[in-house]
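SEQUENCE, STRUCTURE TOKENS:
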Amino acid sequence: MKYRFGVPLLLVFCFFSIKTLAQDAEAYSTIYRKTFLETAQTDMTKAHEIADSLFNISTTPQFKAKSLMLSATLYEQQQQLEKSTRIAEQAYTIISETNDFSWQVRVCGFLASQYRILQLYKKSKIYCDRALELIPQIPQPEAAQSAAGLVNQELSYYYMAAKNYQAAIRHIEVSKQSFDKVSQNKDFFQANNEQLLGLNYYHLNQPAKAMQHYRKGLEMLKQMPDNHVRGLVYNGMSAVYIQKSDTANAKKYLDSANAIAGRSSYLRLKNEILKTTQSYFLKVKDLSRFEEARQKQDSIREQITQRNTRFLDSSFVELEKTTQQAQQENNAKNIPLAAGGLMLVAGGSYFYFYRRKQKQQHRLFTAYFEEKKQLVPTPPQSKPSHYLVYTDADDTEEAEAKTADAEALVENPADVLTGRKQDSALLLSEETLQRLLNSLSEFEAQQQFTSGTITLSQMAAQINTNIKYLSYVIKTYKGRDFNGYINELRVDFMIRQLKEQPQWRSYKISVLAEKAGFSSHGKFTTIFKGVTGLSPSVFIQHLENEDKASIN
């Protein structure tokens, strides 16, 4: 049965205006939950109006922060990440001035989620760690357990993004243990945990376990109005039935999921359901409707990408422009008037050397693409494995030190570099060699090298080999040591993105470095220049010039 939240805004306002110095926390929470779980699913405009009214009548920092977080959550469902993140940051500023550590943790968890969605994983991890530090300061045991449940739930999303499903499951189980000790909103949070467990087991190709958790989540949601979690559960159940070739049940649950998505403004819910819809139509060999679903998903993805891009543009590009402008104005003030004549005299020489440098840079730019005519990784020849590993200690330099130690164990690496003659001590069989080469192809195709924490030992463990064999194959068939191999893949990846997605050229260099998997702006610039002969900023300028020339 579907519900609509019919409390008029005037009634809400009057109710909270009766005692402005002592707002009714329980009534406030009731309206908050109804707005989030019911109204937002059917009338997003009305939900925003209620959230704005709650903020306007709030008389304490706690209530102001909570109402802001309701607005932020509604914008997040609409994939308007710029607004949701800015409002949440505003809420964090307000709530951090109080002793309400429970809501400080909740806001940190929300911001961690937003930055994870934007693939700014380091910033996401900062907020997760901040939340974990705050939890012991929550005086109420139930509130502390609720906060711990939410943070571990967010960490599960973090590891799912890394395709480390076993780690994600461990965090979900910890989250469940925490939510078992709370009473408020327990069923909703636990239902979402069951949905997440179902999704992880689906990715681990364990359909029976996945269905078990989906059904458990559906049972918990039985007494609640339709919401996005129920839509995700229906969608997951449909995906499992598609995997089992049970198209009748797949369609049944897919229709239920689509019904919820049709009334929702939650773009990521729509995107997931359209993905499953395409799988269903492929299974029943209805190619025309498959193409229709694909086009719809492309439209949704474009909206998501545009909104993510707007956030990155406003948050990073504008900041950089402001900094550059301030620097230019400061420099202008410090230039003595007497330097004008000297600059005029030097202008001719500067122009000559500048043009000469530009020509040299353009030759390097052109030479790079001549050498790298095909930058797309070799397609995998077997079922993909999952290599990306995120560790709690996000320290790239430490990981690289471990990698260097591991590579030192390889016997006679100099012999390997002189040709493809196999080290006799390794005794690699042809079957093992081919398996490792296929694994490297999968690794490149899945772009798992963008993990900032990947190491030789981790990669070897993931593909079920030892570091000697893996190091040998990389050096022999890729012509690089492990660090060189990873770094060149990262540079090639970033160049593809800069060529194919022009909006990336507006991002700060530090953002590009993080997306490619480098630990710092400086390391990225140094390695990028070592591979291409040009700094990232100069390379981007040549791409821009090339695009302008082609248009003209």
The chain has 25 helices and no strands.
